[in-house]
Amino acid sequence: MPAQTHTETASTGYGFALSQKEVLGLLEDKTPATLVSVTGKIAGAYSKSKLKTQDSLAAEQVFRLLLRETETNVRQTLAEHIKTSITVPRDILMRLAQDVAEVSLPVLQYSEVLTDKDLLDLIGNTQDVNRYLAISKRVVVSEAVSGRLLDKIIPEVTTSLLHNNGADISEPHMLSIIAEHSDNSALMKTLSNRPHLPVNIVEKMLHVVSGHMSETLKQKYPLPSKDIELEIDKTRESETLKLIRMSDSLEDIDKLVNQLIAFNRLTPSLILSGLCQGNFLFFETSLARLSNIPVANARTLIKDKGDLGFRAIYNKSGLPESLFPAVRVLLKVIHKLDEKGEKPTSTRYANRVIEDILQQSASQPIDNLSYIVALVRRAAH
């Protein structure tokens, strides 16, 4: 048989298919060019699962040795070849992920071996926007990871995440994006193009985007207008209840009630939600203005222990007749807790209100009591 030349393939004992010249090169010169070439061959065979178990273990040891190389292009070659491998030991990938940008970015974007915890740690230990961008482009980005990236409030990172349909973005973070970037039409368009936006997000966007984008959203989400109006009403009521909580004078409350009446927004649910929060001043002022009588007179009628006074002003105010029995129970419970000095702002307060309401109705069912309980829960939040 003819003698084997240095250019022929020789068995290395590890199945890497290196030529004798490459083996001698590793033993003798270890020049960057040789290391890059050999790294590509070993890592390429490894990533394509062409090695047996023993050979794979040997390759991993070689990778750990290559991590010590001062030549960036050697480590970069390693990273490019094993970035999509799911069998590479985590310690190797973590070393590469913390390397210089040329080495780390492919691993940060593609490696499925890195866990959410790894990614969160890596985000926390860098200020490099390019690393944030690489993570934002991963095939799957969890809500926790996307949230940490969005907390950086970097427009290009936010845009990258919104472009990535594999990125799970929480509703609160979407609301934050709208609040912080509503004047960025390009970013709002990117958000509007995401599939399956929550109704609440669509409603919020309709208030801030251009007319053309608004029409596109309405076509994309052909929701019944009633559903959108309900979401708008809930959002408005929530904001109004916050104002009610912050208003502690009759003058402020009176101005607020008159304004709500002027815009046809003093709804029964809002009036009763105020009562659920223990806000007698808002409740009394609302019924007074709707009944066109002084607040002092309304207060006297509402506190009438014989029920006749409350029944009279309730009817005059135009509140739903079907709710009267349930509202009467609610009023008694709120009065009782007020006398005991219970603070309306606590979660415990809402639980006490519900508990006492249910006790009052234990012996005799009361119509629409479940509606009042739902208002108490909503008002508590």
Walk me through this protein's architecture.
- With 381 residues, the chain is mainly alpha-helical.
- It has a domain of 154 residues.
- 67% of the residues lie in helices and 0% in strands.
- It contains 23 helices and no strands.
- The protein is elongated.
- The N terminus is likely disordered.
List the helices and strands in order: HHHHHHHHHHHHHHHHHHHHHHH
Q: What is the assembly state of the chains in this entry?
A: single chain
Question: What shape does the CA trace take?
Answer: elongated
Q: How many strands, which pairing sense, and closed or not: the largest β-sheet? A: none
The structural class is mainly alpha
Whole-angstrom Rg = 34 Å
Number of DSSP strands? 0
Strand portion:
under 5%
What is the end-to-end distance? 87 Å
Please tell me the overall pLDDT: 81
* H/I helix tally: 23
Helix and strand arrangement:
Layout: H1 20-28, H2 32-47, H3 53-66, H4 72-82, H5 90-97, H6 101-110, H7 116-124, H8 129-136, H9 143-150, H10 155-163, H11 171-181, H12 185-192, H13 199-206, H14 211-220, H15 225-246, H16 250-262, H17 268-276, H18 280-291, H19 295-302, H20 308-317, H21 324-339, H22 347-360, H23 369-380
Helix pairs in contact: 2-3, 2-4, 4-6, 6-8, 7-9, 8-10, 11-13, 16-18, 17-18, 17-23, 18-19, 18-20, 19-20, 21-22, 22-23
